[in-house]
Amino acid sequence: MTNKNKIKLIITSVITLLPMLFGLLMWEKLPESMTLHWGIDGKADGMGSPLTVVIVLPLILLVLHWLCIGITAWDNKRKGQSEKVINITFWILPIISLVISTVIYCIALGYEWNFLAVICFLLGILFLIIGNYLPKCKQNRTIGIKLRWTIANEENWNRTHRLGGKVSVITGLLCFPTAFLPAAAFPIAMLLLVAANVGIPTVYSYRFYKKQLREGTATKEDYALNYNKNQKKYTIISLILGAVILTGCAVLTVTGDINVQYGETSFTAEATYWEDLTVNYADIDTVEYRAAGVDGTRVSGFGSFRLSLGLFRNEEFGNYTRYTYAQCTPCIVLTSGEKILVIGLENEEQTKVLYEELLLRTGK
Questions:
Q1: Residue 309: enclosing H or E segment and its boundaries?
Q2: What interhelical angle do 57-74 and 3-25 show, nearest 10?
Q3: Same domain as 142, residue 201
Q4: What is the per-residue pLDDT for 42?
Q5: Which of 203, 229, 254 marks a domain boundary?
Q6: Which of 231, 254, 277 is the C-terminal boundary of a domain?
Q7: Across the chain, what does the average pLDDT equal?
Q8: According to the model, what pLDDT value does residue 1 have?
């Protein structure tokens, strides 16, 4: 690493930690619990202490920043890389640190944010920047579209990155209007945009490889000479992991159910992706139907486009346990001493049936 890049590393590391200084200065004004995570519907669903936000989060981002720089510097094919492309590696995490911390602190201090709009704006800017610099990215193993065919053939790399740059710019522009979509459509739109941004250059790179073979401008042996077995394994593993992650995210986003099993002395709420909950009828003090639903922020548990499960918190109840569908507002509130359970099924009709059944079995 050159002296110039060492100075740049120091500057970007300091910027990454700047939110820590702000948090320490504002420590007395920070609430005991701060929003750390938002669900795919844009609602806060994860909380953390000021210590986590002010100290731990910037340190995690700093370690990730050093890791990215270290991997880039280690790549023996990085020599001759465009300085503008290298700068992305230096600045992306410091900027993320500033933006994320700004959103978290503003919300903690009482300022309202449309988090989905923030995400759309940031992703749009990120894709536009990537799209602008991808064509300038020279062949290497750490930055860019690293496929078997691009790593093995420089012309394939250049052609794929020119197309990839255009696709990223279009993806970035399409990110902005997604801020105006209904919350239910947002995750589907983002998955489609990301899939297109990854899939189109991948398909193009493979087709260009086949075209070279047909025209005789390259042979399989040429690709094999520039692509060893370890690189082949790395690419296959990366593609498999990427497919598994994307498939897993899609499945978790749109699947899952809550079923209620009635026993003689208790009922059990069985939830996909989360632990089952058994409640004795004799322990229930009150049963209340809420047509307008119950709001709250998830402290721990599982949340998706379909389900809201785990420990929640709001001003009315404080901490309470929730087993509901994300898109169904009506729910039932059960109290047992100081414990509160909010439970709801897939639609209003099923929730009303559950309510009548609980009234019958508890005698309330």
A1: strand 307-314
A2: 170
A3: yes
A4: 59
A5: 254
A6: 254
A7: 85
A8: 59
Q: What value, to the nearest 5°, has the Cα angle with vertex 90 and ends 19 and 173?
A: 90
Q: Residues with Cβ < 8 Å from 190, sequence gap 6 or more?
A: 123, 175, 178
CB-CB contact of 265 with 281 (8 Å): yes
pLDDT for the residue 238: 65
pLDDT given at position 206 = 94
Specify the amino acid at residue 223. Answer: Y
pLDDT at 113: 67
CB 325 within 8 A of CB 258: yes
- Domain count of the fold of the chain: 2
Residue type for position 158: N
State the burial class of residue 363 (Cβ atoms within 10 Å of its Cβ: 0-12, 13-18, 19+). exposed
Q: Considering Cα of 280, then 283, then 289, then 294, what sign does the dihedral take?
A: negative
**Is residue 265 located within the same domain as residue 295?**
yes
Q: State residue 76's pLDDT score.
A: 47
Task: Provide the token pair at 322.
Answer: 């929730």
What letter would DSSP give residue 54?
Answer: I
**235: domain range?**
3-254
H helix intervals, the chain: 3-25, 50-51, 57-74, 83-108, 115-133, 148-152, 154-175, 186-215, 220-225, 229-254, 348-362
Nearest residue to 119 (alpha-carbon basis) of 165, 61, 64, 178: 178
